[in-house]
Amino acid sequence: MKGQTSWKLRHIFRSKRVNQLDDHENSSAKEIDDDQRAKPTDYAQLDIFHRAVYPRGLVFYVFVQCSCMLFIDAARHWPTLIRYWTRVELIFSKPPYEVLKRSLSQRVRLSALIIIGCSIVDHALYLSSAIISYRRNAELCSKLPNSTIGGVSFDKFIVINYPYAFEVLPYSRIIAVYIMLVAGTSTFIWNYMDLFIIMISKGLSYRFEQISNRIHLLKQADQVPESTFIKIREDYVRMCQLLERVDNAFSSIILLSCANNLYFICVQLMNIFNKLRWPINYVYHWYSMLFLGSRTACVFLTAATINDESKSALAVLRRVSGNNWCIEVERLIFQMFTQTVALSGKKFYFLTRRLLFGMAGTIVTYELVLLQFDEPNRRKGLQPLCA
């Protein structure tokens, strides 16, 4: 009886203890859930994917430094290249070749003015977006109780917008001004990479266009001597050799330019799909996206005109009459049809019209993947203004 009673007592105490432990665990779990719900989102702790895509400033300066090194390397070969280019150009500066309606200098200058002007507007909008965002953040957060944020100042603006620089360097006004000058210069170099490709493409395509125009004029003649076609084919071969030299000298810059444009178009598209705080941010990102896309398309289309002009006279050559037909016409047709006359990115690809659509499809594919992986970060919304 005593053993049975003691067993009942032990059973009662054990049951109470188990219930107490269960209640304690439930309350602890509830407290953890409440803490997790009450804890604000840690926006600084981004996932690995977002960290890989996010550092635009770092990637921007890496591309700029790489382009500087490539231009310095190209400058060593420039005197030899430009002397050879000049000798070839002299052939097309006199009859029977004609000056086209829009001269080469007009085409190059117009392209340079448009690209440089748009890049200045882009950089001005970037600075305006950064300054207005900083001023409004400082004005709103300084009104909060126990706020440690002071007034608006140039020093704080520089530290907030260029934090990576002052993680290594001590802050001073001289360094701050120098950093702003470097940022502006880097923006010019970043745009000049594409402008340079556009200018050399216009120079090469202009000469191929002169050859095509000369061939088009021959279709009105009744008798064309074989020596004329020999001279045209020799000039065509000279231009192909010049193009090969130019491509060997600058194909690395073309490859870097395409990689740069692909990355920043994807990043700017991500920024457009994300929620921004101020209207000026939307203005800057939309303008930057349109300018970057237009600049990239201009690079591809201008470079593609080399390939277009090199083949534009094929239809005329194929309709040469039997009286004028000769082996040189056949050779010229075969060379125009089979040879890929275009600038390239280290021979990995050639800048033709087809490549523009291929790159557009690649951008769409990458952007869909980026948006899918970035979905959790976009759901978090904007970071608290005064966090």
From TrEMBL:
Cite the Pfam families for this sequence.
Trehalose_recp
Q: Which domain of life is it from?
A: Eukaryota
Task: Enumerate the Gene Ontology biological process terms.
Answer: signal transduction
- Where is it mainly found? membrane
Regions that span the bilayer: 110-134, 171-192, 249-272, 284-304, 355-373
In the UniProt record, the signal sequence range is none
The GO cellular component terms are:
plasma membrane
Keyword Membrane attributed: yes
Q: Which UniProt keywords apply?
A: Cell membrane, Membrane, Receptor, Transducer, Transmembrane, Transmembrane helix
| Record membrane topology | Multi-pass membrane protein
**So what family is this one in?**
Belongs to the insect chemoreceptor superfamily. Gustatory receptor (GR) family. Gr5a subfamily.
Q: What does this protein do?
A: Plays a role in the sugar gustatory response.
- UniProt name for this protein: Gustatory receptor
Q: What is the lineage of its organism?
A: Eukaryota, Metazoa, Ecdysozoa, Arthropoda, Hexapoda
